[in-house]
Amino acid sequence: MRIGIDDTDSPAGMCTTYLGALLARKIERAGMPVREARLVRLNPNVTYKTRGNAAICLDVQGNPEEIFSMARTLVEDYADFSCENTNPGIVAVDRTPPPDFYYRAVRDFCTLDEALSLLRNLGARYRGYKNGRGIIGATAAVCSTFADPTYELLAYRDQERWGIPRVVDESSIFSADDHTYPHTWDSVDRECGVVVCVPHTPDPVLFGIRGERPGWVSYAREWIVSEKPSVEQIFVTNQGTDEHLVGGHIGDLREGCSYMVRGTVSDLPVTRRGGHVSISMEDAGGSVRCMAYEPTKGFREVIRRLRPGDEVVAAGSYKGESINLEKIQVVRLSQEVIARPPVCERCGKRMTSAGSGKGYKCRRCGGRSTTPERVTQHRTLPVGWYEVTPSARRHLAKPLCRGLPDLSRFGL
Ligand code: ATP
User: Fold this and answer.
1) Atom 11, ligand 1: residue with shortest CA distance
2) In terms of domains, do 308 and 356 share one?
3) Residue 405 C-alpha to ligand 1 middle, in angstroms?
4) Structural domain containing residue 344
5) Is there a single domain that holds both residue 343 and residue 321?
6) Ligand 1: which atom is nearest the Cα of residue 138?
7) CA–CA separation, 6 and 8 (whole Å)
8) Which atom of ligand 1 is the closest one to the Cα of 107?
9) Which tens digits make up the pLDDT trace of 355-398?
10) Cα–ligand 1 centroid distance for 2 (angstroms)
11) pTM (2 decimals)?
12) Which residue, among 15, 40, 37, has the nearest Cα to 140 in the 3D structure?
């Protein structure tokens, strides 16, 4: 059977993954094997989310009635019911349902009614608290299927330490990364020189190590020196897989969905207030703005070096009429030709502008010309894929160290 849980935390504390880890222990203590603990990331653009829009599913060999009742007790004991935006949901199914609802929840938006109607058709047990919205994520979690599973080892703090500064030796996390990257990723951000895998929020997570295999995350964990965790759990996840992206065409992009789009750069990049960089790209359907926000750091330098006519493939969420870039492929560079004042035919000195729309004038001999010299610029930006820095990466975004995107999956 599978049991799914979602929406138990608030910005003030708790974490649904922690509840999942506690439930797994409780079930095993009762003699029922937990075959898998699944950490399921859903559409990152859902506005109700507390942090990373995660739901949990445990795959258990055991008695559904008993497990459902254990989950209820844990949710009722631990969920932060005082927060208006915390609306827990629990779902239990006897067997894994078809994955359609999961795919919609990771790539699009679902309603509570849709989840409830599916659950009734499946004859599932479920329970919603307050407005019951967590049932959506819990349903998606039990329906989840991972074509490209990755793993995360999460270490949790003792309850009496929640909210006080975490004691983790940062250099030990750099050592863990030294010994396991690229089989683990996003533990540290070398460009910014910071640790990424230790949160700063008041929740129970001490650190989380993401990687390709349970063995790699466990090996990385051995390097880490920190306060003693109370619980550690390895989850199988859809993190780092680009599962949220679908192939898209400009003009058909829907707010809150995430896309891989092929197009041609149509304007010079613009650096806006706050250091955010934008470019426009177009395809047959129209034009769209693409944003590289300040936290994406060195990635913005790539965007600044794009020129009109460059062919690119952009990946990111469509929000507020822009694609918020997660990564980009520079497919082909256009020829950049710039116009500059010509050399004076009479005296050989370079002319200067004679004023807007008035052509060029030689300051030495007074010669005039209306024709600029056209110079083809040498473009040095290598073609290939570029991605945002790890501290700006979304949970679902596939890091390039895991392999380049397979564009055929997106029909591109
Ligand atoms: P938590 O640790 O509590 O799970 P979170 O950051 O993962 O925190 P939630 O507090 O769970 O976010 O809030 C997300 C809410 O949005 C949940 O109620 C979930 O059921 C709902 N939800 C998730 N995905 C979708 C979707 N695609 N469409 C509509 N609602 C969704």
Assistant:
1) 7
2) no
3) 27
4) 336-377
5) no
6) 20
7) 6
8) 27
9) 999 999 999 999 999 999 999 999 999 999 999 999 999 999 99
10) 18
11) 0.94
12) 40
